[in-house]
Amino acid sequence: MGPSIIKEKVKQETSEDPPCPLASSRVTSGLLKIAHLLEVGGVCGIPTDTVYALAASCKNPKAIEKIYNIKDRPAEKPICICISSVEQLVSAKPPFSPLLWEFMKNVYPGGISCIVRKGDWLFNLGVGPAIDRVGTRDSIMIRVPDHTVTCHLCDITGPLAITSANPSGESDSTHHSMVINRLGHKIQGVLCDGESNELVASTVVNCLQIDEGIISIVREGCVPAIKVQQIFDRLKNTMA
Q: Which CATH superfamily hosts domain 19-239?
């Protein structure tokens, strides 16, 4: 009768080596493996509460440079930072107004990225020597994902510089297999977590004029722009 067709298929699938190290998000050893790769200057694909991201340690400027090369990302497009909690941000003591603090506490954690003023407080956050490679000269975009795995990883490594895990101009990666197939040959590892919770990236909110009563939506993503505006209007009226 010959060998089992099923066994033959499994043999074919497992005989091909992946293009980069893979780790499971379901086990602590997987998180530690990716954390080590990031801390020694690697770039890794990681899950978030939206789509998959490429991550590099904010302590390593060269690793962030790698992200631009891996994605063919234009140099003028800034990269944001990802942290594990609002409490981590509070402890860095940025000079934010009460209104900005309330807004961030109401939208974090979740699928919203806030653009705020850059400053030396980023060193307190643990950004380190890569400060000039994240954000723009005057502003920085901050993500606090509503995703246990991503937050645990940030707790281990400190802040991460992240951007969507896709070649520049192409669609987002919504499964770890997409990251492996598209970028696995260019990166140092992938933290595998299956399907993304969302099919689109975060909503980006410019908060630079928040104290003048103004926010603007730079990119509408998984959180509708009208919902963001409703949150802001409610807080603004409450604090007036």
A: DHBP synthase (3.90.870.10)
